[in-house]
Write a structure and sequence with these properties.
Blueprint lengths: L1 H4 L3 H11 L5 E7 L2 H15 L5 E8 L11 H6 L4 E5 L8 H22 L3 E5 L3 H12 L3 E5 L9 H11 L2 E4 L2 H9 L7 E3 L5 H4 L8 H8 L8 E5 L7 H18 L2 E5 L7 H10 L8 E4 L4 H9 L3 E4 L2 H4 L9 E4 L12 E4 L5 H11 L15 H10 L24 H4 L2 E9 L3 E8 L4 E8 L4 H21 L2 E10 L2 E3 L4 E4 L10 E2 L1 H8 L3 E5 H12 L8 E6 L3 E7 L2 E2 L30 H5 L1 H13 L18 H9 L3 H25 L3 E5 L3 H15 L8 E4 L5 H14 L5
Parallel strand pairs: 1-2, 1-4, 2-3, 4-5, 5-6, 6-7, 8-9, 8-11, 9-10, 11-12, 12-13, 14-17, 17-21, 22-25, 25-26
Antiparallel strand pairs: 14-15, 15-16, 18-19, 19-20, 22-23, 23-24
Helix pairs in contact: 3-16, 5-6, 6-7, 11-12, 11-15, 18-19, 20-26, 22-23, 22-24, 23-24, 24-25
């Protein structure tokens, strides 16, 4: 409605004059299957009702013309539309190759038809492979394209096809505000986008009060009551056919166990449908007393069936779109509709290893009644679309214009630019110091800056920005091209958003802090943020002992104990970003108190803070210093004094270090028995003091199958900075992270 309020009456008059007052807009509607016809039919009825403004031609192709899929072209004839052309374009086989061949066959046949029809505009719906062939043919033959339902997001290959059609189309009719925003983000011209709602809603919102009991009886039996049956419609997922077939098998098992009358519609023509039909027949669905298996239900009747069902189950877009208009409970299975906007009536089962999860979902959803949802339309889409069609100026240039956002001028391609070293700005936010470095692609620290870490949030962020700006300026002088900024910090980090969720007690005022936005805004560079333990693991993967190793663990032994886990070459973050908090593995129920509030953590035994605590106890009892040691009066007792005392023969210091090494070793054994890595890398200032103790504990305590692990000390001089740099360098050079 906003779009049309912005169109003046004078503009409408000018368009009519340009097109000629008597010119009818020649519209070609191409429909490929039962699903897209349900969206296109209301538009076709609207066009047919205005013969003074439009001339309509209908092309039918795809699965409409296949007996196994119900010969659904007949419903188009029953709706009293003249079919201008029938094109048999489906190559049977129902696999990936058959889909490609079907697109090719359609591309061969369509040019002759379009040459004869010469439409002003072709209306194409959705995201099917047949629709891609239609849009490609029309675009190459200089025919304007109106794309229905562009800008939406779902799973599988459909997303790619939908967005490809968007780039070919000249005009767009979308159903939701989010879809409209996606189209704008894809650089489509806002003036050529209409937010109309889904055309099928024009029929849906007036359908529920019609006679429905006779329809339910016809398809499910005389004894079936409203809200006491299920409608099942599941299609193959072309990007993961085996898994989708397994999911379908589990769905049928769950439906058999649930023991309710169920109407099962055959899947569409996508790759994998043949295997799904075999699963139905193997389980005897077509002859089971509780099931009615059908190839096609006319859309008017299908509306009544889902409107009064106890539940709909499957992965059809109909479940997450149209069914919401009635508040019918829906169970959406798998990933085929991932990303779709849904009402509260939809319960998602993303994955299922057994039928139990699906069965539980059925028990939760069946028989409920939810509020009706109008996410996808308000029942007035067709009038908006017809008005939009009338506003199209055929005298305007056919060539599309994309509305790209403003970008900075590219750096000129001169020899100095070519010879620049690709580099990253690495930031290490420690408990004591704040460090920034320019790090090259090979892991060379070209320049490093160090300052004391301020105590307050404002001062700390100001100093980070100041140091980064200084380093970025210096990068030009040392011939480095900065690709981005990587930040290593203590605490729990959401790397997707660049937010420090909450930090360790060593870094005060550092919780719920968005680091990415202010630094990216100031430097005009992409910014990545991660936990310091994860960064150490990334540094080892790119520059250290972990290079080329599929599964390994890095343990940092410093002021605290941290680490990172690389599994199948990928860093593990965990569901709430607290994976690899290795310092808080509990190795004793009665151990010393840890900073986290628990007792007996590795960090409470083996961290620098823990060793300093024990050193102070010995010093207070005059048991620390031995011959060969001396301390100034104002000197603070540290872990280094404890280590020195142990080396000089202090048996109590030796015992403390032995206990710390044993605690760390027990933690490593737990890691071996959980993750089974092939390599453990000890990093940090205490690593060399612990490596032998850790190996001894592994030999004594680990399972024989885990004892083959290699335990090494990191050879990286600065893993925190190198890890922060690798956040940038791995991503910007298109490696997986």
């Amino acid at each position: 409605e906003v779009y049309f309020k912005n169109l003046s009456k004078q503009k409408q008059k000018e368009v009519m004059e340009k097109n000629g007052n008597n010119h009818k807009l020649h519209v070609c509607v191409a429909t490929c299957n039962r699903a897209d016809y349900s969206k296109l039919a209301p538009i076709m009825f609207g066009i047919k009702a205005e013969p003074q403004s439009f001339e309509l031609d209908v092309i039918v192709l795809g699965s409409h013309l296949i007996d196994d899929y119900g010969n659904t072209y007949r419903m188009i004839e029953q709706d009293d539309f003249d079919i201008h052309t029938r094109l048999h374009t489906i190559v049977r086989g129902e696999d990936e190759a058959a889909m490609v061949e079907s697109v090719g066959l359609a591309l061969v046949k369509l040019p002759d038809v379009l040459n004869r029809l010469k439409p002003d505009i072709m209306i194409v719906h959705g995201d099917r492979f047949d629709a891609l062939a239609l849009a490609t043919s029309a675009a190459l033959m200089n025919i304007r394209i109106l794309h229905i339902e562009g800008g939406e997001v779902s799973g599988t290959i459909d997303d790619s096809i939908r967005h490809a059609i968007t780039k070919l189309a000249h005009y767009h009719v979308c159903c939701t505000r989010s879809a409209e925003q996606h189209l704008i983000a894809m650089c489509e011209d806002h003036d050529r986008i209409l937010l109309a709602g889904c055309p099928s809603y024009d029929k849906l919102l007036s359908a529920k009060n019609k006679d429905y009991m006779s329809i339910i009886s016809m398809w499910l039996g005389e004894d079936v009551k409203t809200r006491d049956y299920i409608v099942a419609l599941q299609h193959p997922v072309t990007t993961d056919i085996k898994h989708s077939i397994k999911m379908f098998e589990l769905t049928l098992d769950a439906l058999i166990s649930f023991n309710k009358r169920t109407l099962v519609l055959f899947p569409n023509v996508d790759a994998g449908s043949k295997e799904m039909v075999r699963v139905m027949r193997k389980k005897g669905i077509e002859h089971h007393p509780n099931f009615r298996a059908v190839k096609h239900v006319p859309f008017d009747q299908f509306i009544q069936l889902v409107a009064h069902a106890g539940c709909m189950i499957g992965n059809s877009s109909c479940g997450v779109r149209e069914v919401g208009a009635f508040g019918t409970p829906v169970i959406n299975l798998g990933t085929r509709q991932t990303g779709r906007e849904t009402g509260e009536n939809v319960l998602h089962v993303r994955d299922a290893d057994t039928q139990d999860k699906i069965l539980h979902a059925l028990q939760l959803q069946f028989g409920k009644q939810y509020p009706c949802s109008k996410i996808y339309g308000d029942g007035n889409a067709v009038p908006r679309i017809l008005k939009f069609l009338k506003s199209i100026d055929l005298k305007e240039p056919l060539q599309k214009k994309f509305c790209f956002p403003p970008v900075k001028d590219n750096i000129s391609q001169d020899i100095d630019h070519i010879l620049e070293t690709q580099s990253a700005l690495a930031v290490d936010l420690g408990g004591t110091n704040l460090r920034v470095a320019i790090v090259s692609m090979k892991g060379e620290i070209v320049k490093k800056y160090t300052q004391l870490n301020p105590k307050t949030y404002e001062d700390r962020l100001e100093l980070i920005l100041k140091m980064c700006i200084e380093a970025a300026s210096e990068a030009v002088n040392v011939n480095c091209r900065i690709l981005g900024v990587g930040i290593s910090t203590g605490g729990r980090v959401n790397p997707r958003e660049g937010i420090v969720l909450h930090s360790t007690k060593l870094i005060q005022e550092w919780s719920s802090v968005d680091l990415r936005t202010p630094i990216s805004d100031a430097l005009h560079l992409p910014v990545w943020v991660d936990n310091d333990g994860n960064c150490a693991a990334l540094a080892e993967r790119k520059f250290g002992h972990g290079k080329g190793i599929e599964n390994f663990v890095t343990l940092i032994t410093g002021t605290g104990i941290g680490g990172g886990i690389i599994h199948q070459h990928e860093l593990i973050h965990g569901s709430s970003f607290c994976a690899a908090e290795l310092g808080h593995i509990v190795v004793s129920l009665e151990g010393p108190e840890c900073l986290c509030g628990s007792q007996g953590c590795i960090e409470a035994y083996a961290s620098g803070i823990a060793l300093q605590r024990e050193a102070k106890k010995l010093h207070d009892e005059d048991l620390l210093l031995v011959e060969g040691m001396s301390m100034k009066k104002e000197e603070v007792v540290s872990a280094a004094h404890l280590i020195q005392a142990a080396k000089l023969g202090n048996t109590k210091a030796e015992s403390i270090l032995r206990t710390a090494g044993t605690a760390l070793g027990l933690g490593v054994v737990n890691i071996l028995h959980t993750m089974n890595p092939s390599l453990v890398i000890l990093s940090g200032v205490l690593a060399s003091h612990y490596v032998n103790a850790v190996k001894d504990v592994i030999n004594r305590q680990a399972l024989s199958s885990a004892k083959t692990v290699d335990v090494v000390v990191s050879n990286l001089a600065d893993p925190a900075l190198l890890g922060a740099a690798s956040l940038v360098l791995d991503y910007t050079t298109r490696r997986i992270y």
